Fold this protein.
Amino acid sequence: MVAIYCAGSHDAAVRTERAYCGEPVCPECKAVDDYAILRTDRCRQMHTKTSCEQCPYHCYRPQEREQIRQVMRYAGPRMMTKHPIAAIRHLLGR
């Protein structure tokens, strides 16, 4: 989702880094992606939850939480065209 957001929001010339998925992103989005991967890896409830919305714990600091919200608002609707299987799995909660 971070790569989709970055591709739609930032110029191609500044996308010099690679996101976790391997797509090019800018350094700012790379930091957001790295933080999201770190928090996901350390999540205490990852094995039982289907989405972060349903989790009783807040893994993200407030500033990063707002950045992730922006990314999800932008990339969520575009997931169906870029990664339809991942989008359907997310909608089904798997």
User: Anything to note?
Assistant: The mean pLDDT is 88. The helical segments are 2-9, 27-41, 62-82, 84-92.
